[in-house]
Structures are given as C-alpha cells and as structure tokens.
Amino acid sequence: MGRTRRIRDGAWALGLLGSLGVGGCYAGVEADVENVSAGDGGLAAGASATDGNDSDDGGSGGEPAEPIPLDVLERIGDAGLRRLTATEYAATVHALLGVEVDAALLLPEDWRQPFDNDFTTQNPSQALIDGVELLAADVAELALTPERRDATVGCTPAGPTDAACFEDFLARFGRRALRRPLSDDDLSRYGALLAEAEETGDFYDAINVAIRAFLQHPEFLYRVELGTPVENDPNVFRLNDYEVATRLSFLLWGATPDDALLDRADAGQLERSADVRAAAEDMLLDPRARARVGRFHALWLGYESLPHAPSLSTAMQAETQALIDRVIFDDGMPWQDLLRSDDTYVDAILAEHYGLPAPATPGWVDYGDTDRRGLLSHGSFLSAMSKIDDSSPTKRGILVRTRLMCQVIPPPPPTVDVDMTEPAEGTCKEDFYRQQHLTSDGCVGCHALMDPIGFGLENYDHTGAFREVEKDDPSCVISGEGELDGTPFTGPKELSALVVESGALNRCVAEQLYRFAMGRSELADVDESFIDFVVDANGREGDFDFAELMLTFVSDEAFRYRRNETAE
Amino acid sequence: MPKLRLSRRSMLRGAAGFAMAMPALEIMSSPARAGAMIPKRYVIGFAGTSTGFPTFEYDLLRPDTIGTNYDVKRALAPLEDLGVRDDVSVVTDLEIPWGDDGNIPAGGRSRAWHAHSTAPLISGVRSISDQNERPAGATSDEIAAAALGGDPLHRILPYRVQAAYYRGSNGDGGDRGRITYRDEDGTIIPIDPIHSPRLAYESLFTGFVPPDPAEAAAALATLRRRRSAVDLVLEDAQTLMPRLGSVDRGRMERHFDELRDLERRLDEVSTPTEGACSLLPDPGEDPAIGGAVENGDTGGYESGGAYSDEETRAGVLTDLMAMAFTCDLSRSGSMMYTMAQCFLNANPLFGAASDIHELGHYGVGGGEVGLNAVSDGVAWHVKHWARLVQKLRDTQELDGSSLLDHTALVLVFEGGWGYDPESGDSLSVHSSENMAALIAGRPGGLNAGGGQHVSKPGGHPTQVINTALRAIGVNHEMGEVSGVIDELL
User: What is the ipTM of this complex?
Assistant: First the structure.
C-alpha cells in the first residue's frame, strides 16, 4: 500500500509542553505505522484468546467464510454502525466501572421510533462528540475516587509508573470496553499513556486518560461489526464471536458483554447455534435481562415515560414490570398471559387509583369481577397515547392496531385539524366521535378501524382509573361497548381475548422484537423472512413463550451474520 | 509557517503573548486595520409559537406606527425594557403560502399546520409533504457559517433553550427540536442542538486557561490529558475506516470529522486577558429536566412540570453566545428558544398555568385574557433574544466599535394568525398569515437609521433572513425565497 502515516504519540503534548519550557515526557515515543493494513493492529476481530491478534476469521478484509445455505442467506438483514443509546451508555459504564451517570443529560436525544435505538436516525455532531468527551471525563473522575479506584484498576501500583499494573488494567478494562481483546499494538499505544503518570507523579492520572480514551473510542461508542465475507454473497459477513457476544449482550442486557461472555468468545463457544443458545439461556437468568425485556415492552407500548405524578407513574411501571417478570421469567408462562392475568401487582396508591383492595405492602391483588385483566388494563398501557386530559378512543385504537397487531393506519388527511377533537358543550364524547369520525365518508374508512376499539376502553380514563360517566359531562354515561373487526367487546378483559384470538399477535411481537434487536424500524423483505422464520418456529397462532422466542431469534444462524447496508 | 489568522481570537492570543505558534502581529496594534478585519456574525432565533389569538383580527406584536420610533405593545415590551428598540426592526404582515401535497408553492408549507411552517421558514424551501416536517434545504446558520469562514474554533453554535419536548415520552421532539440543517452533497442532515448549558460552557471554553499560574498549570494538565485521549482515538481511525462498508464509512467519517474538530479546539490554548473576551463563570450542573405534562393538567403546570428552568438556561446560553462572538470563537449560531408547537410550561415564566402552545387555544381563557397570555409568551422569547442584542450592542470590539455593528440577528416565529386551511377558520393561530420577524444589528447598512417597523404585505418571513445574510455580506437567498426587505438595508 502506498499510504504512509507517521504518528507521534502525544504530539500535542510535546507542542504544548515545549511552549511552556517543560517538554520531553513523550520524547522518543514515535511509532511507525507505515503501511497500515486492514489486518493490522486495532481491531482484533476474531482475535484468539492468547495473542490478541487477528485470526483468520477476522475482519471484513479476511478470507471468505464458507458459503451459507440459500435459505439462511435470504433472511440476513442489513446492519449498520449502531451508536449506544444514552440508556445503553449508562448501563455499560455501570457494568464496566460501577458508576452511575445520566448520559441523557449530555448526549443528543435518541429518537423514539418507537424504540430508541434506530441507527438510521443517528448522526454524528459536535453536540455528540463534546457530550461524549465530557461524559468520559465525568466517568473517569467518578471511577477514580479514592474509595473506588482500587476496584477500577484491579491492582495496586507499586509506584507512579508501575507498567505491569497499568498494562494489566489496559488489557482487562480495554477488553470489556471495546468488547474484544486488545492487540499488542493497542497495548503498546495505550501503554504510552503511562507518560502522563511520569509527568504528574500520579499513577491514576494515566488511568484517567486511558478511561477517557476508551470511552471515546468508536468501538466503544458504536457497535462495530465487521465479520468475514461469505463465499456466496460478498455483501454478507459472518460475525466473529466477539461480535456475536456483543449482539447478544446488547439485545438481552442492554449493555456490554461481561467477562464470562467474552470468555466464551475467547474459547470459540459462540460459533454454533447451540453455543449461542446456551449462552443466551444463561444470560436470561441475569437480572439485567428482566430490565431489558421490560424496557423493550415499555418502548414498544409507549409507557417508558408517563405524564403523572412520580409516585403514580412509578407504581404503574412497577406493576407492568412485575407482570413481565412473573410471566416471562419466574413462571415461564405464555406471553399471552401478560394479557390474561387475573391479578396485578400494586401498591396502596395504585390500588386506590384502580379501586382495588389496597395491600399492606406492594403485592398481587386479584381483579375480582371487574373487566380488568392483564396488561391492557394497566395504567401504563391506558396512559399511553392519551390525547389530552382525557383518553382518546382514536389513539387507543391506533395503539392496539399498530403496536399490538402491527397493522398500518394511514395518517389523517391534510384537511383534518387534529387539534379540533373536543365535543361541543352538551354533546357526549362518544356521540361526538361517532358523528365526526364514523359518518363522514372521508373519515370512516380509517376511524372505523380505530375508534370502536377505543370505545370499548372508555370506562378507563387516561390514567387507567375506572369511570362510568364522561369527565366533562356527568350526564353522559359511558357504554364501554367496543368492537374489534366486527366482534363486540367491553373492557380490557374482552379486548385482550380478541387480540389474542386475532392471529396477528404472534407475528407482531416477533416483528417488534426484530426492530428492537436490529435497531432499525423500516423493514425489508429479508427482515420479513427472518421474522417469519422465527414466528413459524414458535407458532403463528396460539400461545408462545417469549423467552423461547428470543432464544429462537438469537440461535438462528442468520443472527450470526450481517448484510452491508447499501447507499440509497 | 504558521497559519495567519486575523480573527479577534488570534489577536487576543497574540496580545496575551500566549499563542502557540502565533506571532505577535503588527496589525494588532492598529485599531484601524484591526477594525477592517473584524468579522461578521450571524444569529437566527426561533420561537415555536404563533403570535395571534383565535377570533382576534390583530395581535399585540405588530406596531401601529410604520417607520422609526414605532410603538411597542405587550409582545414587544422587552425591546423597550432592555433599551434596544432602536437597534431592532420589526417586519410584519408577512406570509408563508400553503398548498396540498404535490401542489405546495415555492417556499410554501403544506396544509397541515403543526411544525409544517418551520421547514420553509428556516430553509426557504417548500415543505416536503404533509407527513414530513424536515426542511428540504440547509438553514441560514449553516450557510452563514460556511460563508463567513475565518475558521473559528466553533463553526456554528446550535443552541436550544427548551430542554425537552414535554409531551409523550418527553424526548427532544425530533425535527421539532432542531433548526440547524446541513446540506451534505444533497442530503439534508439534522444537526443536534446543544441543550445542556454545562456542555455548551465546557465546549466553548475548551482552550481557555486562567491567567493565574497555578490554575493555568492545572488547566493545562487537564487539556494535555484530554488531547492524549483524543489522539489515541483518532489514531484508530486509520485502522477502522478501511474495514467498514461504504455507508458505515460515511457515518464514521462524519464522526471523525467532528472528533478532529475537537482535537483542533484542544490545540488552541488561549488566556483571555484582552478586551471584553473573558472566561465566564462556570454555570455548574444543569437544571433538572422537567417531566411531561399533558394538556389540561393544570396541576401539572402549577407544580412545575414541563419546565427545566428554561429561564436560567436561556440566560446562560445567551451569555455564552455573546461571549463566543466576543472572543471570535464562533461566527454563526442558532438559538432555538422553544420547539415548534412549544409545550413549555408558561407558569414559571409569567404565571399562566398552561403551556405556550395551549395559550393559543384558550389555555388560560379567551378574549383579552387569552390574547394577553399569548403575547406574554411571545414576549418571553423576545426578551431573551433582545438580551442577546443588548449584550452585543454593549460589547466593544478592539477598535471601539460595537459587536452589534458586525452582527445580524433574526428572530422568527412559527406562526402568525389568520386563515387556517386545515379547519377553514378565518381567524386561527394555525396560520402562516400575518407573520412577523425581528431583525437587529448594523452591519452592511442594516438598520442604519435605527430600528423601524416595516409592513410588507405578501412578503415572506424568510426574506428577513435573506436580509440579515445580505447585511453580513453573504449573498445567498434561502432556498426558493428570493429578495430582501429593501427598507432595512
């Protein structure tokens, strides 16, 4: 290669110190990186456990991997660089260093689509770069407090320039942060940071710089997947074991792989479907999996942030999380039991809100003979997509159709003022909706799909509290009579049964999981093929086990491949 | 050979005797020549609100008097309060045309209202469609930054005061939370705003070192660490880039471009000891982000929801932008005070228990009460924008001129009042008729006779932006909107 570049480590420092008349601490640390090739240094894709260097199944420039069966090839979706979301960033630095940061304060907001990890919406900016740098400084400072620094470093330096302790930290922390072993070149270059300790006489100053560097590194900030091109499609790449570990970890834990998972990658124990499944089964036992599955549901169904008093919002979110934990993790029950549960987890505040018996301590309370059953009767779900200070039958219909059944509802035509949805005085809300939406030729086509669903939930206000009359006019008695595709229902209990029987649920859950897992809301044909494969394996209708769905998902061969995005 | 930079920043650096490879230049001692070198600056401000109130055939922004010494009503009262009326011109009776998808006129908006006037307003290019709020062209702050050049440390300062969307999941509003867009080879890229005062401060004063020797040593040590970390990361670009697919490579190139920019800023060490350029006090931790409040939840507004102390945030960001211009750290900025369809709580700002958007929908009542409340919302934006004008006016350049002599500032509003094609109402706030824009500064003959009120029936508000660009010597007309407000130049 003709490309030549010489890097002077600490060139800036030399210039600055020179101007101050100090100078010299970086003198002689000049690395010749001429002829850098794709296989050199930094990215130890597929590196072995022993030498930290690239192996034959390394990066995208390596030898082609074995051809893969056509049916697998046809369900491998596009994958692009995915930046950690603010939530993933915070969870990852907590996993790495045990420190708590609110990354959302300094990082650009992650757009909800409804998931927060759609990489096609992520654009690098100065706000990102500066926020990441400031966060890295904050984290380094928190990690190196006198109380915490021993745990951070993992060894006790014999002196300010204890190279062995420093290298031990680099190898251990760098492997976790970059999610692959550091190469010899990495260790050499990062090892030069010990000069900072020489300059200041403080070993931890060098650690500080190293943490800052790792936390700004693109392989930390982004999930970089390279892999090896497959023989029968140059645009498809087989991921190495570290990349598979990373996919698993961010999907199931929302954070970086731990040492045990990286150990599996070191040992080549993520190469086969059975290996991946075994690792995933273990990971699902970890509490982080519960939080991650809970977050998937919260983003999906729109209750990540609730517009109520903190005590009420927290209670609602805890209620739904408790049900998810019980159905999916504790009892291993069908996912549909989320919609069928006869009891619910409440504290005294939420019980009173619902009109249920208040437990002495937060616990499970039977719904009794009410129309409540399962998640669709939770305040979390009933609060989502509320229009204003009241429920919106239309929006609840949209929620059920688009999020739970994955149907497409066209947006309102441009001649409709979506703010003008308040009934005139003396007109009951349901009558208003029926007159405005269900009698006009231009409206009825779509609103007939939405509003009748919402009518069946109208006995529950925008906070999930039960009511018999309308908020603005007590003379308007709520019928609570709804309809889904021609079948009448009343209340969450009957709606849940209809949704379960609709036949749309199983594929929709898989589709939403796919969006979340791949970090992309727009789906292509290959994505649909993967989703169909997973759905067929778990049953297109009838009950399914969500944990098993995830295990099928990650253990499919296609999960261990990626397809290069192509420019539009 | 050191690069010859004749900006105020380099002059300051030279004067302070602290330049890294920056020689003290003879020109620095010559006010006349230095004056000739004083750069132009540009700021676009955005207020996510309409200026009128339903059923009213007037607003409390438009002065009755045409020309100079215009009268100031409730919405413009801060101009008088802050003593900047004569520095600010008001252009009224403007209009953004509208049309249905496929028939949207040049520089026009779609029929759908909320946030659909913003795209043509800030880019001059017609809306993409009823379902797309993103501008189809670059915005004026980007165009100004590219044209003004000078290679300042911060090419652009995209600040946003409103900390969160305050509805639904309480995110940052997507395209409603941005007014800076860059054209990259025909693709319009949204630029993330900086909404954290702390981040804005840390970012702006990256290279500033206190004059005290002990403090300077500590600051330089910190800078050294920061640079060492960034250096290492940039080195890895060489290994990573060739191994990425073309689309990912494009993403990563943008990432490394920004990182190299940070590296460059870390290189530029200066001690602000000359002129008005100084290190501002550290604003400390950011005010907490307020939660979402749904419309009609009066209790939520009364208890301080949908509010993240935007009053303080606006003050800090204003100070930072003014100082950035003073120190020539940047020459172009955007100040998004509120997002389109602004759901910011008005209660802590001026005692109206509603959000800014709902004030225009009888949030605190109808009639004069409603009109006054909407006007107070407009005035809150005007106050902070006027404060920036005031700070720039009262800051001297090294040649003794005012910073405002070299800066053009615009404030635009999401809507006016009049016909709403969505509802068919003739007096709605969902309207791009009767729009207004404010313009301040004195470069290029702008406001030469003092601030004035110009009525421009049928004019497009983006022509005010064109005027500001013309005033700073940028001969660019925004998107599909041509022409300037001749009376102002």
Answer: 0.88
